[in-house]
Amino acid sequence: MKEIIEENVNKVSYDGGESCPVDFASPEELYNTLISRIRRYHPSTDISMVEKAYKIASDAHGDQARKSGEPYIIHPLSVAIILADLELDKETIVAGILHDVVEDTVLTTDQIKQEFGEDVASLVDGVTKLTKLYYSMDKVEVQAENLRKMFLAMAKDIRVILIKLADRLHNMRTLQYMDPEKQKEKAKETMDIYAPIAQRLGISKIKIELDDLSLKYLKPDVYYDLVDKIAQRRDEREQFVQDIVEDVGSHILNAGIKADIDGRVKHFFSIYRKMVNQNKTVDQIYDLFAIRIVVETLKDCYAALGVIHEMYKPIPGRFKDYIAMPKPNMYQSLHTTLIGPNGQPFEVQIRTYDMHKTAEFGIAAHWKYKEDPNGVNTVNNEEEKLAWLRQILEWQRDMSDNKEFLSLLKNDLDLFSESVYCFTPQGDVKNLPNGSNTIDFAYSIHSAVGNKMVGARVNGKMVNIDYVIQNGDRVEIITSQNSRGPSMDWLNIVKSTQAKNKINQWFKTISKEDNILKGKELIDKYCKAKSVPVKEIFKPEYMENVMAKFGFRDWESILAAVGHGGLKEGQIVNKLQEEYNKKHKKQITDEEILETISASKDRPRPKSKSGITVKGIDDIAVRFSKCCSPVPGDEIVGFVTRGRGVSVHRTDCVNVMNLPEIDRERLIEAEWQKSQDEKSVEKYVTEITIYANNRIGILVDITKIFTERNIDVISVNSRTSKQGRATITMSFQIASKDELSRLVTKIRTIESVLDVTRIAG
Question: Which UniProt keywords apply (predicted)?
């Protein structure tokens, strides 16, 4: 069955693109395909540079092979063909052919510069740097830093990202040769990062295929079920689309409008998204078809719309004019959903040829690198038009907190977000996320307007500032120089990423110095209470590692985060202790602690009820310290108490590391015993602290994970700061450190969770 389904998949064309290549070709065949694609949109171009790049890359990669067994040169040639399909300049195509040579062969960037010039060398260097990024579904700071670098690369030259998208697309097309775990990792990365970026850049030609391929590996059952169900009634559906196209074509022609008309079944991920959002099966999704009408002029778009609405009954509320109000990625088209023959709904999209090119190629259609008569490449100033990219670059400059940057960015890259269109008093169109209110509108104009806002009028009437804007509303913001600025409550009201960022920036700016002082006081107080050796742990090398761990660029930002409640002072001090302990661990545990108590290594160790063997001491009461709650798998040490037996601590416990010299002689070697009865698994009490942005349902999401894993929760304590940061402390029983690590990893995937830590004394 799967083979039959795959055969059907290979017949399906992606929306707006050519069929995804299925069979491997020889390098020579691919090279000829590349040249023919270039000739198709630039018949007179000199392809000598492309030919030279192919020969150099082919020689450099030599006998290298991909996991499929095919020659490695197949990959860069395929990337170049994707770039040629986007009708990009020959420098970009040459860089696509050479994009892996610096990373994988002996060729250097300087050699590429010497052979092909500064432009190509710069592109290859940019792609090489992006190749060194790596993705982690758990490490927020890694994802954020990767994305920062990616957007900085965009700012320098958008073509670097276009090459990277083409590289990822071909890797996804050949993902079947990876092991299953790697397939899911790459597919998740593609769906989280690459497909949303392609969408935001307006490159539907690439975005759609990345979506479908990601779905194929992340949810194969869903994907193949969709393919199978769509294939079952293929003939019937194709006949329906053909009849509509012919009927529309004859009416459009009779109206004197020149047009190209085609029809298609919507792509798989689009159908899957409808199923999820509308909670329906594929059989219950009716508007699976779209008819596209491409005309010559803007006037023809609206004329064609009139013809269509005369032919078929439009569904109320399903008309969208993206020509008058383009999407942020420059997409323009008229969308309308109609009732066809036999009551079958279908969608019609109407646009001009120029609009169609932008819809397919997005930013690639606007960043044209054209040759002037002197042979020098010139770049259009279209970058000024992409407000979204400018906004991202502003965030990069303003935000030192990687976690906040990633949270804002992922909200902005949300594939399921819709827009609402409204007007300023001057008649300018504002495009805001669906659900936005007048505060969002104010900050979309300028941060100074939002910060001084005291009220709003909508359609001439006074409204509350949390009024949700509707399509077509005319919004006027009332400001006052006497305004004290935004309220912290606004962060829970606004919808747009832009507004949240600007409100946060306002609070950080006016209160950063106070927060720095408060943070320093909290850390000093904590260190005194725990008798922490401040001089030993507050050293530049340890502080730098802690800054990197939490995603901050300077120590003042760490202090400010502690001051306003974003981080706990104990988190910072414990991380510094860990860094100190890494460097001094051997000296402390081996020389100062464990060797102070001599015991016979050959002495038999009877089974302990506690599951702990204490070196040299039998029949002694053993208890687990509550300050660090060790579990099997942790490195442990015993402490001989006065009259209460031996207390067991983790070796990285703050209380152990801060013991006075006189008490260090009471430390004794301890280890976990292996259970002889595999069916009897001892459970141990431990405690974790979860830091999160507070929201409705977060406790439900967290406790659900414990329930799914049959983990007994002993206690839950939750508190929320004025800034909306939740601190949740949970005590529970667990069998081992490995089980605890898996639990923590799962909790970190929950939306709004910032960090999860174990208590360390």
Answer: Kinase, Transferase
